[in-house]
Write a structure and sequence with these properties.
By secondary structure, this protein is an alpha/beta fold. The chain folds into 2 domains: 257 residues, Rossmann fold (3-Layer(aba) Sandwich), CATH 3.40.50; 39 residues. 34% of the residues lie in helices and 20% in strands. The protein is built from 10 helices and 10 strands. The strands form 2 sheets. An 8-stranded mixed beta sheet has the order 3-4-6-5-7-8-9-10, sandwiched between helices. A hairpin with a 2-residue loop joins β3 and β4. α2 crosses α3 and α4 runs antiparallel to α5. It is globular and about 65 Å long. The two termini are 19 Å apart.
Length: 302
Amino acid sequence: MLSLDSTYHIQGIFPKQNPARSSYHTNYRVHLPDGVLSGELMAPERRKGYKPPVVLIIAGSGPTDRNGNSILGLHTDCYQQLAQELNSQGIASLRYDKRWIGESMNFKGSLDSLRFEDYVGDARACIRQLRTDTNFSSVYVIGHSEGALIGAIVSHEEKVDGFVSLAGAGFPAESVLRKQLTQSGLDQAGVEKNLDSLKKGKELYISSWNNYDPAREISKLKVPVMIIQGLRDLQVDRADAEKLAAAAPKAWVVYMDSMNHVLKGVPADKRANLSTYNHPQLQLYPDLVPAIVSFIRSRKKE
C-alpha cells in the first residue's frame, strides 16, 4: 500500500517484501587510466534462469567509503545495509571506495588535483563494466547526497534502466554551501568570504562541482526516475526534492517522514538525529528499501 501526501506524491508505506535466502559477495575492481577502484559486488545466489537487476550505489561527499563511513568521523554502515537489504529482495549491488579512500588508494596525482568530473568518470566506468556482465538483467543507479548529482549525470550519459536520487540536493554547489556555512554559525561576512574563494576557483574540486545544476541534470533523463527525501534530513530538505521533482515531472517522489540524511529513522531532536551519524548498529529507515524495490520491480512490468 502506498501513502500519498497532499500533492499526490508518494509518501510511504510500502509492502514487506519476500526475502531471498542466500547471496554471494565478491571483491570488485574497475581499472581506470589513472588507478583502480575497489569495491564489493553483492548478489543473490545464482540460479538457473534468473538474472537479477544490479544497482550501482554512488556515495555522498567527502572521504566516504563503500559502506557509508568516513575518516572524518562518520560511521553509519548505511551503504552496506542498503546493499544487504536490496540483496535480500533479489537485487544485486555494487558499491565502491571513492578514489584515494579505503582500498582505492592506488591513483596517480593527489587530492589537490581532484575534480568533480573525476567522480563522474569513476561512476561511468562502473556502469560500463556492469553492463558487460551477462549475469544481470538490468542496471540501475542510486546516488546518495552529492552522489545523486553524479548519478544523474551518468544516467544521462550511459545506458541505465532507472535512477534513484537519494537525499540529493536540488540546487548548485554555491547554494548548498551557502546554506551549510550559514548553519555552521558563520556571520554573513564569513559566508561571503568563503563563497568568494569558491567563485575564484581557489578550491578546484568545489569550483568544478559548482559547474553543475542538479535540477538541470535530472531534467535531461529519459529513464525512469525516483526521488527520495527524508523529512528529518539536516543537510538536504523538502525544497531540494521539490526542485528536482519540478525538473523531472514524471518521477516517483517519495517522502520518508522520520528519515535523516544517513538514511536512519530519528526523532525530531537535533542532537538525537546527529547521534545516528556514529551508530552503525541502527538499521535503515524501514520504508526505504521497500520503496526502492517497488520502483525497480515496477520497471520490469512495463
